[in-house]
Amino acid sequence: MAAGVDSFRALLRAANALLQKRRYHAALAVIKGFRNGAVYGAKIRAPHALVMTFLFKSGSLREKLKSIAQATYAHSRNLAYFVFTYKGLLAAQSRLQGKKIPFHSFLAACIGGWLVFGDNNPINSQIIMYLLSRILFGLSRLAVEKGYIPQPKQDPFPLVAALVWGTVLWLFEYHKETLQPSLQSSMTYLYEDSEVWHDLSDFLIYNKRTDSK
What we know:
The chain is mainly alpha-helical. It is 77% helix and 0% strand.
């Protein structure tokens, strides 16, 4: 028993010593990036899938739990693969050119995005739309910071909010099929289901009446 504990401690010391070696930093960063991508993907997707599934999807409890598990696994796996690919390509480019330049990040992420997120499915679609909105905000701020467009005299956010909500509700009312399915479900719940009721039970307590009366 004592010998086993000593062996484990020796192995642990060797592993910790390896992690401190600078020469392996790039490779170890790729491995930890894979780990962090998997964990973060699961943390983000699991609660979202749980809420959306129980709010908007029908089916048995087993089917709902299976759907949640599949969505969580897909998000976790894809993010882990992407971080692994991105950091690996970044390290390879830096090693080949002897230094890190901004284009390396762009190229590595483009290749990773194509390989990992190129399949047009609901999970990837949600992730890309999430990123797209933040890219637009980021590029707008960068354009002001670099002087490509003048600094607004007033906060433009109220105008952006008005245009975003005006556009999305117009699309929902007249071109619903162009919107992503989960957004359609959310907006149907908010704006269409609120038009229908039969008595107090499905007016205040439930969204839809489940009995046959």
